[in-house]
Design brief:
Low-confidence stretches: none
Shape: elongated
Distance between the termini: 55 Å
Order of helices and strands: EEEHEE
Number of domains: 1
Structural class: alpha+beta
Length: 78
């Protein structure tokens, strides 16, 4: 088991995870980040002005991965 920390960037502020989670490994951390990001995305107002949301995952050695969600609108030029 390894300790992973999930720091959340909401487009305006960084929330640093001081406690972390004890997980089986990197793949478990990837899954946890994806599930957490999906939960956060469900709470966002669609197409709100934001830089998106990111979860930066780190362990004792440093950064492991970054999972991001960007709510982008693309319109046809009619």
């Amino acid at each position: 088991m390894s300790q992973f920390y999930f720091d959340i960037w909401d487009g305006e502020a960084l929330v640093v995870d001081e406690e972390g989670l004890d997980l089986a490994g990197r793949r478990a951390a990837e899954i946890e980040a994806a599930l957490s990001l999906a939960d956060i995305a469900k709470q966002l107002e669609p197409f709100a002005s934001s830089d998106g949301v990111a979860i930066n995952v780190r362990d004792a050695s440093g950064p492991v991965l970054r999972a991001t969600f960007v709510d982008e609108r693309v319109r046809r030029a009619d």
